[in-house]
Design goal:
Belongs to the short-chain dehydrogenases/reductases (SDR) family. One of its GO terms (biological process) is fatty acid elongation. It comes from Candidatus Amesbacteria bacterium RIFCSPHIGHO2_12_FULL_48_14. The protein is of the alpha/beta class. Strands 3-2-1-4-5-6-7 form a seven-stranded parallel beta sheet, with helices on both faces. The radius of gyration is 17 Å and the shape is globular. 45% of the residues lie in helices and 16% in strands. 45% of the residues are buried. It has one domain (5-224): NAD(P)-binding Rossmann-like Domain (Rossmann fold, 3-Layer(aba) Sandwich). It has helices at residues 14-25, 55-69, 92-116, 128-132, 137-157, 174-177, 181-190, 199-210, and strands at residues 5-9, 29-34, 45-49, 74-77, 120-125, 161-168, 221-224. Helix 1 (14-25) links the parallel strand 1 (5-9) and strand 2 (29-34). It starts with a strand and ends in a 7-residue tail after the last strand.
């Protein structure tokens, strides 16, 4: 039987990279997508450049991957950016960029995958910011929109395609490294487990939702936040 294929955006670093490595470990083939900085390919992962906020770029990059692998069994959307600003600090250009990547990127990659997939799963990344608010309201707003999209797509694509999300808390990734360290320490203290997540912790949850182990789960959000938000 041919290996299953997963398309992963934001796969060059952080949660996306850890997720790509997890799928490879589990025997999948990975089409990884990056935005700007070229990535050296590794065993089991073939990389393509894509701007997830641009439909033509998605059609080109995803199309190249599909031409190579000839199938897509799962989409994982890890691409995302954080503004690190209050609403008053945002200029319109930065606001549009955050919305473009986090929100439109979700819609457009989901649209492309839905047109190609016959059966499988999709996993989108939201955030505790969507559940509890954030000092960056634009980022929080985009992630809340993702959750509404996930529930709607779960209904639209059932019964053949499952659609779920993962809501990470503070994670040791590129976004976290740019945070104010005092604020970071506060967030860690507010979590019940008193620690920061590893990208691998989030990747494990993503893979679970994509796998047959989660065959009866759709429209759900898996919280991986160390107890920072309890619902």
């Amino acid at each position: 039987m041919d290996k299953k294929v997963v398309f992963i955006t934001g796969a060059s670093r952080g949660i996306g990279r850890a997720t790509a490595e997890k799928f490879v470990k589990e025997g999948w083939q990975v089409a990884g997508f990056y935005t700007e900085k070229a990535v050296a390919e590794s065993e089991g992962i073939k990389y393509y450049q894509v701007d997830v906020a641009d439909w033509d770029s998605i059609k080109r990059g995803f199309g190249q991957a599909y031409e190579h692998f000839r199938r897509i069994d799962c989409l994982v959307n890890c691409a995302g950016i954080y503004g690190y600003k209050t609403l008053a600090q945002y200029d319109i250009e930065t606001m549009e960029k955050v919305i473009g990547v986090n929100e439109m990127g979700t819609y457009l990659t989901g649209k492309w995958a839905a047109e190609k997939m016959v059966k499988g799963s999709m996993v989108f990344i939201t955030s505790t910011a969507a559940q509890a608010g954030s000092s960056d309201p634009v980022y929080a707003g985009t992630k809340a929109a993702v959750q509404g999209f996930v529930k709607s797509m779960a209904k639209e694509l059932a019964p053949n395609i499952r659609v779920n999300s993962v809501a990470p808390g503070v994670t040791n990734s590129g976004m976290t490294k740019q945070m104010n360290q005092e604020r970071l320490a506060q967030l860690i203290e507010m979590s019940l487990l008193k620690k920061i997540a590893r990208p691998e912790d989030i990747a494990n949850g993503i893979y679970f939702l994509a796998s047959d182990e989660a065959s009866h789960i759709t429209g759900a959000c898996l919280d991986i936040n160390g107890g920072y938000v309890l619902r």
